[in-house]
Amino acid sequence: MDRQGPQSRDLGYAVLQVPDHLGNQFSPTLALMAAAEASRTLRLGTLVLDINYRHLALLAKEVATLDLLSEGRSSLDWAQDGSPESRR
Length: 88
Fold this sequence. Notes:
This protein is α/β, with parallel strands linked by helices. Helix content is 36%, strand content 16%. Helix 2 links the parallel strand 1 and strand 2. Helix 2 (28-38) runs parallel beside helix 3 (56-69). The radius of gyration is 13 Å and the shape is globular. The mean pLDDT is 80.
């Protein structure tokens, strides 16, 4: 991850957003915390967090921590979606 921060800046990327699906991927907030450490300029965010799978108090704590570590470069989107497609 430490080499991708400067590389993303050099390629002109300004924003990194990560998805939240159950499956073979990193935890969104932990991945964004690593990105916050690797880059000092990228804006960081989630595509959409599925709040059906997250305790809201713990999510709030993770997002507040990310906001502090990224020096305010983070954003959060969430949804409550009951469709079977969102649970894949």
